[in-house]
Amino acid sequence: MTEVKAAAGAETPGDLGSEMMSFVSELKTFRTDIQKRLQAQEERMTMLDRKTILRGRSPLSVEADAAAPHQKAFDAYVRHGDDADLRALPMEGKAMSTSSDAGFLAAPTVAVQVQEALNVTASLRRVANVVAVESATYEVLVDMGDIATGWSTEGTTQAETGTSTVQRVVIPVHELSAMPKASQRLLDDAAFDVESWLAGRIAEKFARAEATAFISGDGVNKPKGFLTHARAANASATNVQIGTIPSGGTGDFAATNPANALIDLVYALSAQFRANASFVMNSKTAAAVRKMRDTDGRFLWTDSLAMGQPPQLLGYPVLLCEDMPDIASGSASIAFGDFASAYTIVERPDLRVLRDPFSAKPHVLFYATKRVGGGVTDARAIKLMIFG
Q1: Burial class of 98 by CB neighbour count within 10 A (0 to 12, 13 to 18, 19+)
Q2: Beta carbons of 324 and 335 less than 8 angstroms apart
Q3: Is the pLDDT of residue 232 over 90?
Q4: Measuring CA to CA, which residue among 274, 292, 264 is closest to residue 386?
Q5: Which of 72-76, 78-82, 96-100, 242-246 has the highest mean pLDDT?
Q6: Cα dihedral angle (266, 272, 276, 280), rounded to 10 degrees?
Q7: Cβ 251 vs Cβ 329: under 8 Å
Q8: Nearest Cα to 383, choosing from 274, 310, 284?
Q9: Number of other CB atoms surrounding residue 246 within 10 Å
Q10: How far is residue 295's CA from residue 297's CA, in Å, rounded to a whole number?
Q11: What percent of the chain has pLDDT over 70?
Q12: Do residues 376 and 229 lie in contact, with contact meaning Cβ atoms separated by under 8 Å?
């Protein structure tokens, strides 16, 4: 046996055997290290996959989170008068107004609720042209005539055509304010939805003031209504005057065939405006008009067939605005026209709120302001019925 081992050792040098053993050991170490690295890489990839899945769900709340800081800061200001968070928000985010404007911009949810409430109320907003601006005035150019045209041939000289008349209308914006009041105890109640309450009270006050101004405002620190615009008899009215049609009676409709005055009112309006025209009157006037019948005994008034649709008179929609005057001697109780072309409402979209806990103690006042303007842009698109 000893001889055999000696012979084997003679065939394999001692240093080669040790090198082989060292190589195998290093190979095992390298393999173990690679396995550890792969395991760590796999764990890292698994962790990244989990984070990616969680991040994939976050866009569901991105829209709500964008306004969350302003919403939270505004709630603290309304409830407790703490304006530190509002002042900390960046100016580009419209968190704080300038010192000359006084107050803070309302939270987006409050401003949206107020705007939606104003748009659904029975005011001229539903048929007029509404424009959002950032400036103090709104200017519009109204074409008062068609561009002149002519026929030409190759053998004749083309005469120069005239140009149409353009009228420049400037509508300033005015500050509309409301001042709802609440008790501090009510504001301290966490279950009380102060933002919805504030939006509802502000919208109620704004809607009443706007509806009146758009119809009969004198234009002094408020919008100018279409009833205070210059007017004249339809036969002699100019492009900047609203044409009027007589009712046929003294402080009332004519005793016989009263519906004829309504037909005259409709066709006094140009065909280009009649396509999008509507009647505007209050409820008392509507009660008198809806009793009228034609010669065949059919009512001129047609109730709406679908929820939310306005009733119709002579085939045209009717907007009931309670700020229109009642039927009386000399009143302009019925208007007919394309108000989208005739009347423009200008507003700045921001709503400002100033908290005042001192003027009406122990109650808290909220001074809310919004800038709104309005005016007639094209008098040709409106006709009024005058009760003599």
Answers
A1: exposed
A2: yes
A3: yes
A4: 264
A5: 242-246
A6: -40
A7: yes
A8: 274
A9: 15
A10: 5
A11: 81
A12: yes
Cβ proximity of 361 and 182 under 8 Å: no
**Residue 341 contacts residue 168 (beta carbons within 8 Å):** no
Average pLDDT over residues 163-188: 84
Q: Classify residue 225 by its DSSP letter.
A: P
Element (H, E) at 78: helix 68-80
- Residues 95-101: what's their mean pLDDT? 45
- Range in 140-154, 190-204, 360-374 the model is least confident about: 140-154
Structure tokens at 188: 């301290």
Q: Which two tokens stand for residue 119?
A: 């748009």
What secondary structure letter does DSSP report for 27?
Answer: H
Place of tokens 């119709």: 312
* Contact call for residues 144 and 167 (beta carbons, < 8 A): yes
Cα(229)–Cα(224) distance, rounded to whole angstroms?
A: 8
Among 134, 281, 119, residue whose Cα is nearest residue 206: 119
**Token digits for 18?**
């040790």
At residue 241 the predicted structure's pLDDT band, cuts being 50, 70 and 90, is: very high
Structure tokens at 324: 């229109």
Which is it for strands 129-132 and 137-143: parallel, antiparallel or unpaired? unpaired
- Annotate 309-371 with DSSP letters as a single string: PPPEETTEEEEE-TTSPPS-TT-EEEEEE-HHHHEEEEE-S--EEEEESSTTTTEEEEEEEEE
